[in-house]
Specification:
It comes from Egibacter rhizosphaerae. Keywords: Membrane, Transmembrane, Transmembrane helix. This is DUF4190 domain-containing protein. The structure is a single chain. The protein is an all-alpha fold and about 120 residues long. Helix 2 runs parallel beside helix 4. About 30% of the residues are buried.
Length: about 120
């Protein structure tokens, strides 16, 4: 009912999906640049991408609804957040693997040292 009256008066209808996408995209990009928070960026980006595409399509199909540009920008920022999240998680997993390798090498050297000390 409110939608019909707003459309008749020329007021633009809101687009909550586009707003949500923009907020999630911004939050995702910020978390994408913070170390160890790539998984948060990935989640925010994925959700923002979905909301952005839905909001963009809603605005495109209904000229009385605003948020077409906002939905598109939200989807783009969310896609960037997904990429940053994947990149950040790759860096973290690589660093953890390097640390694990270093600990294994240290353990092997300590065992060799023990054997040398016991043998002499």
């Amino acid at each position: 009912m409110a939608d019909a009256s707003q459309a008749q008066t020329g007021e633009k209808l809101g687009n909550g999906m586009a707003v949500t996408a923009l907020v999630l995209g911004i939050v995702g990009v910020v978390f994408g640049f913070v170390p160890l928070t790539g998984f948060i960026a990935l989640i925010c980006g994925a959700l923002g991408l979905i909301f952005g595409l839905i909001g963009f399509n809603k605005a495109r199909k209904n000229p009385a609804r605003s948020g077409k540009t906002m939905g598109l920008i939200g989807a783009i920022l969310s896609a960037i957040a997904v990429v940053l999240g994947i990149w950040g998680m790759t860096i973290v997993f690589g660093a953890v693997e390097d640390i694990d390798d270093a600990f294994q090498e240290f353990d092997e050297e300590m065992q060799d040292l023990e054997e040398d000390l016991d043998g002499s």
